[in-house]
Amino acid sequence: xxxxxxxxxFAEDYRTQPIEPQVLHHAKRAVIDLHAALLPxxxxxxxxxLERALAEELDHGAARLALGRRATVRAxxxxxxxxxxxxxxxxxxxxxxxxxxxxxxxxxxxxxxxxGATGEALLRAVIVGYEISTRIGALMGRAHxxxxxxTGTIGCFGACAAAAELLGLERAKFAHALATVATFSAGLQQxxxxxxxxxxxxxxxxxxxGVTAALAAREGVTGSLDVLEGDAGYGRAMGYGAxxxxxxxxxxxxxxxxxxxxxxxTFKNHACCGxxxxxxxxxxxxxxxxGVAAGQIERVRVGTYKAALDVAHYETPQTPxxxxxxxxxxxxSALVHGSVRLAASESARIEDRATRELMRRIExxxxxxxxxxxxxxxxxxxxxxxxxxxxxxxxxPTRKGDPDxxxxxxxxxxxxxELASPVLGEPRARKLLARLWRLxxxxxxxxxx
Length: 449
Prior knowledge:
Elements: H1 3-14, H2 21-42, H3 47-53, E1 58-64, E2 70-71, H4 73-84, H5 101-115, H6 119-145, H7 150-153, H8 155-166, H9 171-182, H10 198-218, H11 234-240, H12 249-253, H13 277-290, E3 297-304, H14 306-311, H15 320-324, H16 327-337, H17 347-350, H18 353-359, E4 362-366, H19 368-373, E5 380-386, E6 391-396, H20 409-424, H21 426-437
């Protein structure tokens, strides 16, 4: 069988199996974390601009936008997927350099709402979407990430697999859906090397593409079944061709159905680019150990992996998007204000004099040892020198929120309430949170009430 057929076989076989309690619990955590990202992203650009652009597809249809507005399935997937990736607090699959929640769950939710699916069916679709797409992401790895934005490219497979599962596609049509969405896969890193709204749109477009491919396959549209492993296929064309071959697809399939990647998600503890997290965590740790205020710091040196410097590269950020992708800014902001939450992207905080002054005393560089460990490990080495001559260095080996330093359920609840309450109001946010924790028992998925 071709690779897409083997992924489809997993999905079809998994329908006959009960969801293990641990897997179910982690799937609910993923949906809760998605809503923590979706709600604040729904009330800012580009999601608000997309609502204007797609007005003809709104106020009718069986799906819903985050705050309850009716939408067609594809419009809901696009707008909600975009919103979920906007404020940079959505989940990460570390080994795939990939945010699976933003493309996968909005696609699944839109179809689940339109088809009257249960909460359990939604969770099963989310699991299938995560399991298939994270394996493709991990296999494509750094070779793919050099030019492509994995959340836009790999996210197409997560959205498509989840949508195909909700539609109940039999094995052949499921495989054709994956084959078709492979050729929709897009999202260039260069699109967010300048200030733009393209990055969150990648997640939204992936969600929409996945829904489209699954719906098309249901009606009989076919794809090239060897699209992943073929001589001019996805593996070679989008990462490995320059290396003289293609990826080993057996690695992607090796533990499928036994080792569930949805139990290994990173849930963000800071509202910015995930590549900066180890540096933030390390800086705060050194600051606490030294007992030094930001104004007493003479110099900060950060060594980390190359992708962090390539992506979070803005030296003097002027906009919220630039601030979230400035390693120097988020480290300085953490040291001055104690955290990097949504307020860190507000104009007053970006222009804060103390933060700007500290940024000028921060040096960043690639640490070869840490770079060699990426993407399996996301680490940073932070050294702080104080004005009174003290000095301390610390290796932050992981990020708070990574699978080896996870957010507890209570911490995840706190994150959700912090982000959702300003949008919904605390009573409504708490009511929704309670519903999401019992999602497998929900018989209708209109969360707007």
